[in-house]
Specification:
Layout lengths: L1 H6 L1 H4 L2 H5 L4 E3 L6 E8 L2 E9 L2 E8 L2 E8 L6 E2 L3 E3 L2 E10 L2 E9 L3 E8 L3 E5 L7 E7 L4 E8 L2 E9 L2 E2 L2 E2 L7 E7 L2 E8 L6 E8 L2 E6 L10 E4 L4 E7 L5 E7 L8 E3 L16 E4 L4 E6 L5 E5 L9 E5 L12 E3 L4 E7 L5 E7 L2 H19 L1
Antiparallel strand pairs: 1-31, 2-3, 3-4, 4-5, 6-8, 7-8, 8-9, 9-10, 11-12, 12-13, 13-14, 15-16, 17-18, 18-19, 19-20, 21-22, 22-23, 23-24, 25-26, 26-27, 27-28, 29-30, 30-31
């Protein structure tokens, strides 16, 4: 058997094996890039800032760059991520437009579509991932007071439910949207994870709303007042990734209908410190059979792991290095149509780097280590 393996050494130890999953630089020459999403293997959707408060959308690929949409000048606007799914992409932006509050949708597939909704009241906007544009509007009602949730699509808004809220002094407080994240559960239900609460008593809370349900629980995870990332699978389980007070990356997987069974644990090594900026450098996706979490260390290293069931510490895989930890993109890892994921980051020189990897990071890490030991033994 050793002889057989030795005969294959030229293939197994060939640099071409490493090249298959090697990082690659993207040919993006657009300035002031805010976000990038992979629309296909050779096409990107790039969001850039034309003016301090105006946004351009560009398709970039082998055929060059093509401007495809522009969002108007909107002071105080909050820009959502570019979401690419099932051959379609979309993004959203909420802010002041023409002396009122507005929500803009831009979506693309065979045709580019734009839609503006006029809103009322101080709102928080939580985009929900999927092939069709939609999300949740959150605002505080003056009576009771109450936290009011509405679903918003290009067709309009629909009330979903209300929750009790609190009041600090004479002001009704709602925390920044970067500390909140929403996912669709199916059947008209949504789940929201948020770091919120009265002053001095903030915690990680989970709320489900829509489909005739309205529930709220506090989750047993000591998480810092920092951005969180979420993903949901087809069985009603919610993965949440955030930071501890020590800047460790922590995660939990919650059965939305049985939240008491969830555990929270650090997934980054004890001596590792995650990058800390106003948007999350950490993210999590459901690939169809597993949750993949990824994050950027404060030294620019890009790391990832398969969360599995979180019963044991996950196996960490080094994805890349030299990431610009101060200017992260909104989606560090994206699910592909096949059994792969693509990691996407910006390096310190301003280049955009991708690396395609198999979904099963644990198997990849094991085979990489076996290959390294085998090739080293043959070399000796």
């Amino acid at each position: 058997m050793l002889a057989q393996l030795s005969g294959c050494a030229g293939i197994i130890c060939s640099p071409a094996v490493e090249e298959r999953n090697a990082p690659h630089r993207l040919p993006i020459f657009i300035r002031d890039v805010e976000d990038v999403a992979l629309h296909s293997s050779d096409e990107l959707i790039v969001v850039s800032r034309r003016l301090p408060t105006a946004i351009d959308v560009t398709r970039a690929g082998r055929m060059g760059e093509q401007a495809i949409a522009a969002l108007p000048d909107m002071p105080g606007a909050e820009l959502g991520p570019v979401i690419s799914s099932a051959g379609r992409w979309w993004l959203s932006r909420m802010g002041d437009h023409q002396k009122g509050s507005s929500l803009f949708f831009v979506s693309g597939g065979e045709q580019i579509q734009q839609k503006e909704l006029t809103l009322e009241g101080p709102l928080m906007w939580l985009p929900v991932r999927g092939s069709e544009p939609r999300g949740l509007l959150v605002f505080v009602g003056a009576e009771q007071p109450s936290l009011i949730i509405e679903e918003a699509t290009p067709s309009g808004t629909k009330p979903l439910g209300e929750f009790p809220w609190w009041q600090d002094g004479t002001s009704l407080t709602i925390w920044p949207s970067r500390l909140w994240s929403a996912e669709a559960l199916g059947g008209g239900r949504f789940v929201i994870a948020a770091v919120d609460g009265p002053r001095g008593n903030r915690s990680l809370r989970m709320r489900t709303v829509g489909g005739g349900t309205t529930t709220e629980v506090t989750l047993p995870c000591r998480i810092a007042d920092q951005p969180i990332a979420t993903a949901v699978d087809g069985k009603g389980r919610l993965a949440i990734v955030g930071l501890s007070e020590k800047k460790e990356v922590v995660a939990m997987i919650v059965d939305v209908d049985r939240p008491g069974t969830a555990d929270c644990r650090a997934i980054s090594p004890p001596d590792e410190v995650s990058a800390l900026v106003w948007i999350a450098t950490h993210t999590v996706v459901w690939t169809g059979d597993r949750f993949i979490a990824a994050w950027i260390r404060d030294d620019g290293g890009v790391r990832a792991c398969d969360l599995r069931e979180l019963r044991t510490a996950p196996l960490i895989v080094d994805i890349g290095e030299d990431a610009d930890a101060g200017r992260p993109l909104r989606q560090l890892v994206q699910k592909n149509a096949d059994d792969t994921v693509t990691f996407l980051w910006r390096d310190r020189s301003g280049n955009f780097i991708t690396r395609e990897m198999p979904n099963d990071l644990n198997a990849y890490a094991l085979m990489t280590e076996i290959r390294r030991l085998f090739c080293a033994a043959l070399g000796s």
